[in-house]
Amino acid sequence: MAKKISRKKLLKEPDEFMTFTGNLLRFTKEHRVKLVWSCGGIVSLILIFLGTQFFSTRAEKKAATLLEQTLSRYETILKENDLSKAYRDLGKDFEQILKRYSKTGAGKIATIIYANMCFKADEVDKAITLYGKALQYFGDTLSLKNIILSGLAYSYQKKKDYEHAIEYFKMIASGSDSTMKDEALFNLGQIYGAKGDMDQKREVFQQIISDHSDSIYIEMVKDEMSG
Question: Is the residue at 184 inside a domain?
Fold first, then answer.
């Protein structure tokens, strides 16, 4: 006969989903600066997705536990401010999560986190591949889509593949979700300026002034427009 667990004991035991989510939120909050694509999008936004997941299956629980353990180790390495070391030491752990638990919520979230880690370690081609896979997972999730598109845009920009960077920044700028839209417009303006297309630069900068007056880029944009 199965051992009956008292209601009192159940109430005392921490909910696995809440514990996992809480630890991830704490981690991303404490390392907000280190876990950004650039000045804007923060990895903690991807945790919105976790709010809709309940880790009820064994695979989900295992994936969540492995991801939490890996992020804990990542937290330790980040204290050394060595992003290349983080990639070298933790790459295999992320690969294991992605290989064994790609169908779980935690496994899909790990794809975005690993992509960001690869980007920071200058493993840009790998980051692009991972962001592309993440886009397949979350292309219909507005709260995550722009973060992934931004990761792709910054990755191509880092490769100096400006046409692809423009393509992905434009997808953010023209989309229905406002997340990171002003940042995408600002980066478009910077790329257009570097290419010598000043009319296009002024056009997107004017859009920031008109539609995003509370943007953190507003003063820089106004300075450049008046210069």
Answer: no
Give the whole-angstrom CA distance, residue 225 versus residue 201: 9
Task: Give the pLDDT confidence of 186-208 residue by residue, as tens digits.
Answer: 999 999 999 999 999 999 999 99
Q: Which residues pair with 36 in a beta bridge?
A: 42
- The whole-model pTM stands at 0.76
- Cα 18–Cα 19–Cα 21 angle in degrees, nearest 5: 65
Mean pLDDT score, 124-130 = 97
pLDDT digits (tens, 9 = 90+) for 42-56: 344 444 444 444 444
Contact 77, 85 (CB under 8 A): yes
Angle at which helices 58-78 and 16-30 cross, to 10°:
20
Classify the phi-psi angles of 196: left when phi > 0, otherwise alpha if psi is within -120 to 50, otherwise beta: left
Neighbours of 156 (CB within 10 A): 22
Q: How many domains does the chain have?
A: 1
CA distance 193 to 202: 9
Q: Residue 97 is part of which domain span?
A: 15-140
